[in-house]
């Protein structure tokens, strides 16, 4: 199993809908997680971090961490075409200097 | 403005011609790292540095060198570039132990012919 796994997508949602992006992780990864948004050809931009079990909300974004299921998700409410991007999930590799390990990313397309 | 900068942003070079990609951060971060991003392979760490004069290999260090003589700078050196090093490169930094939010530079697109 890869340390951090994501469905590559693309995930297509209509404008105004809730987009749900998911990520699973292995035992090697610590329970601190980060969501990055990356537009094509641009650098990853940090949008959410979550360190504890449960939900964390920031504007239209909600990160959810379920430690028992080793599952982390990102919900985007009222999706806009400008949210169309690749979303990267990352966790900390506890066995290797606490480096960030990234999933391959999920492509999100919001259709107007 | 807090930022990570990289130069150059675009570079086309030939096999074997040594090059350096600079990275600088103005946030007094202890931890810096270099990644390459390739289609289908995602972000892979090349090297990282936990502080001045402390560097270590990441997942794909072959063909690369780094140095950390000052806290703010972390250059990536390709002594003899080869075509398989054609990629999109990102520098990143974060504060250090216990604070793991990491911020990326704008990227350097390197083509080796």
Keywords:
heterodimer; A: 112 residues; mainly beta; 6-stranded mixed sheet; 5-stranded antiparallel sheet; B: 113 residues
Describe the secondary structure blueprint for this structure.
The complex is a heterodimer of chains A (112) and B (113).
Chain A: E1 4-5, E2 11-14, E3 19-25, E4 29-38, E5 45-50, E6 54-58, E7 61-66, E8 71-76, E9 85-93, E10 99-102, E11 106-111
Parallel strand pairs in A: 2-11
Antiparallel strand pairs in A: 1-3, 3-8, 4-5, 4-9, 6-7, 7-8, 9-10, 9-11
Chain B: E1 4-7, E2 10-13, E3 19-25, E4 31-38, E5 42-51, E6 54-57, E7 65-66, E8 76-78, E9 87-94, E10 103-104, E11 108-112
Parallel strand pairs in B: 2-11
Antiparallel strand pairs in B: 1-3, 3-8, 4-5, 4-9, 5-6, 7-8, 9-10, 9-11
Description:
- Chain A is mainly beta.
- Chain A has no helices and eleven strands.
- In chain A, the strands form two sheets. In chain A, strands 2, 4, 5, 9, 10 and 11 form a six-stranded mixed β-sheet that branches. A five-stranded antiparallel β-sheet of chain A has the order 1-3-8-7-6, with no helix packed on it.
- The model of chain A has no long low-confidence stretch (mean pLDDT 93).
- Chain B has 113 residues and is mostly beta strands.
- Chain B has no helices and eleven strands.
- In chain B, the strands form two sheets. In chain B, strands 2, 4, 5, 6, 9, 10 and 11 form a seven-stranded mixed β-sheet that branches. A four-stranded antiparallel β-sheet of chain B has the order 1-3-8-7, with no helix packed on it.
- The mean pLDDT of chain B is 96.
- At the A-B interface, strand 5, strand 9 and strand 10 of A face strand 5 and strand 10 of B.
Question: Count of helices of chain A?
Answer: 0
| Uncertain stretches of chain A | none
Low-confidence spans of chain B? none
Distance between the termini of chain B: 36 Å
Largest sheet of chain A: 6 strands, mixed
Strand-and-helix sequence of chain A, N→C? EEEEEEEEEEE
Mean pLDDT of chain B: 96
Helix content of chain A: under 10%
* Overall helicity of chain B: under 10%
Give the C-alpha Rg of chain B. 13 Å
Strand content of chain B: over 45%
Please state the structural category of chain A: mainly beta
Taking Cα atoms only, what radius of gyration of chain A do you get, to the nearest Å? 13 Å
Mean pLDDT score of chain A: 93
Chain oligomer state: heterodimer
**Total count of strands of chain B:** 11
Total number of strands of chain A: 11
Total number of helical segments of chain B?
Answer: 0
Question: How much of the sequence of chain A is in beta strands?
Answer: over 45%
